[in-house]
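User: Fold this, then the next.

Assistant: Folding the first:
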Amino acid sequence: AEAMDEITTALGLGSYLEWDEDQRTTFLMRELESRRPLVPRDLSCSAEAREVLDCFGCIASAPSGSLGAYVISMASSPSDVLLVELLQKEAGVEKPLRVVPLFETLADLQGAAAVMDRLLSLPPFTGRDSFEIMLGYSDSAKDAGRLAASWALYRAQEELVAACRKHDVALTLFHGRGGSVGRGGG
């Protein structure tokens, strides 16, 4: 998001970070559908933004099939997924990686189904037959305690299944559960 903020600011489009979710989603959808590139070749940006853009350049140059999924830590909105899709497009990734949102805080788990319902109703995702989601255990346990986090994880799974079923999308859940209690293990 910070890298995209540098891009939109440099192009005189405003501050991506200051836009609300609807503005971000509208912008990202428009750019995903556009045939012209968004990121100028001579973009002057911070080292952090350059690292993000270079990461997608590495993805684009990797042999097809050598990388699996792009997991978005701390995902909380449809724009998180759309942004990764756009950065892959901008980098020229021929066979885009699966973009997997990682819902890990208590608030993100509670909002995960609404995020997916909105995301799956957007044109790049309508008609998709499957989607992968990662669930985080350690941050939710830190937020709410192990018992409340377990309940939130259960509820999130039930609601995510219902949201995906509504859109006729097969759901794969990936459980990011570490071995120690501190990493979500039990």
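Now the next one, as you asked:
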Amino acid sequence: RVTAMAQTRDGSIWLGCNDMLHQFDRDHQHARSLSTRAGMTQMLLASSDGSLWAATGDGLYLLRPAARTLLRIAVRGSGLPLQGAVHVLAEAPDRSIWVGTVQGLFRIAAGEHDLVPVRSPKGAGLGNPSVAGLLFDRQNILWVDTGVAGLHRMSRWDGREASFERISERHGIVNRPFGANLFDDGRGRIWTQIGVY
């Protein structure tokens, strides 16, 4: 069962199937399989540096260009790999990777491979820590969907802390997600499989 797909810069197609990643070359021939042993692959992201990121049911994995093995990503300062489900990934304009998990929002600086929790000032954080959807729109604004508190828009990022507007809450829509599949159109609207803002 294929649960995620991505194409890396070298032209390879990657498929996520349960706890396996399968690579197909430009000629559509199976090239290799890699095991995460981490449950279902939730999402694959081919980043602009040619790397492949795999969000899984238990942690985040990275395959750098020309690497033969997957690297399990750890939380900075703990030395321990991230535990639990990783739902969604997004690459920012500065090439950092933003990571939405059941434990909150994390960021990996460009060229690095350790997770840093995204902190927020009191009263300006996400309404719920379980991040289901991420989108950098055409104006490079980050939108976040959470499982319970719905849609959020990042209003400030100083490199250490992020402030968020609680869009769903402001419109009286509470206790449900806005929709994990976030997409923006040319008119600035934010769409999901559930609705539009």
